[in-house]
């Protein structure tokens, strides 16, 4: 385990099992539909890579990068698009791939935008869900694991851009935050 990590929340093996289960559900629901999978950068890239290996039907991949505007520590609900999609979503079945769903403000704004652009259907797959933190009404159809309200890193998730490369998800030692 990395020296900065206090404890593991999900092991690499648990993550792979989760990707397998979610991949099978998505395969069943989207067989023959050619969905467009939209990965939200940067946190979702490891999850997306492992998830799609378990989807056994045609999928296409796209990416979006958004940033939430924060007034202090609370999200204002507005998001800024840093990288937009390269293709039209009109009439397409979309699967948004996220690392973690917390207040829901980020995904809510993305879903609104994609609805406005006339997507045929929009579902969310998230590796992690912190339902206790939710502020807007939004749920993911496919959820890997529900976790308590603690800040996690690894497997795409960062603290100050570090730890994305860890193959597992864990909690940071307190001293890392105060450094
Ligand atoms: P909302 O609140 O809009 O935010 O659902 C989801 C986004 O917040 C980030 N986030 C985290 N990032 N560890 C992280 O590294 C966490 O525990 C955590 N919780 C939220 C993440 O970018 C996500 O897309
Ligand atoms: Mg993110």
TrEMBL record:
<keyword id="KW-0963">Cytoplasm</keyword>
<dbReference type="InterPro" id="IPR029057">
    <property type="entry name" value="PRTase-like"/>
</dbReference>
<dbReference type="InterPro" id="IPR000836">
    <property type="entry name" value="PRTase_dom"/>
</dbReference>
<comment type="pathway">
    <text>Purine metabolism; GMP biosynthesis via salvage pathway; GMP from guanine: step 1/1.</text>
</comment>
<dbReference type="InterPro" id="IPR050408">
    <property type="entry name" value="HGPRT"/>
</dbReference>
<keyword id="KW-0660">Purine salvage</keyword>
<keyword id="KW-0479">Metal-binding</keyword>
<keyword id="KW-0460">Magnesium</keyword>
<keyword id="KW-0808">Transferase</keyword>
<keyword id="KW-0328">Glycosyltransferase</keyword>
<dbReference type="Pfam" id="PF00156">
    <property type="entry name" value="Pribosyltran"/>
</dbReference>
<dbReference type="GO" id="GO:0016757">
    <property type="term" value="F:glycosyltransferase activity"/>
</dbReference>
<comment type="pathway">
    <text>Purine metabolism; IMP biosynthesis via salvage pathway; IMP from hypoxanthine: step 1/1.</text>
</comment>
<keyword id="KW-0547">Nucleotide-binding</keyword>
<dbReference type="InterPro" id="IPR005904">
    <property type="entry name" value="Hxn_phspho_trans"/>
</dbReference>
<comment type="function">
    <text>Purine salvage pathway enzyme that catalyzes the transfer of the ribosyl-5-phosphate group from 5-phospho-alpha-D-ribose 1-diphosphate (PRPP) to the N9 position of the 6-oxopurines hypoxanthine and guanine to form the corresponding ribonucleotides IMP (inosine 5'-monophosphate) and GMP (guanosine 5'-monophosphate), with the release of PPi.</text>
</comment>
<protein>
    <recommendedName>
        <fullName>Hypoxanthine phosphoribosyltransferase</fullName>
        <ecNumber>2.4.2.8</ecNumber>
    </recommendedName>
</protein>
<feature type="domain" description="Phosphoribosyltransferase">
    <location>
        <begin position="12"/>
        <end position="160"/>
    </location>
</feature>
<comment type="similarity">
    <text>Belongs to the purine/pyrimidine phosphoribosyltransferase family.</text>
</comment>
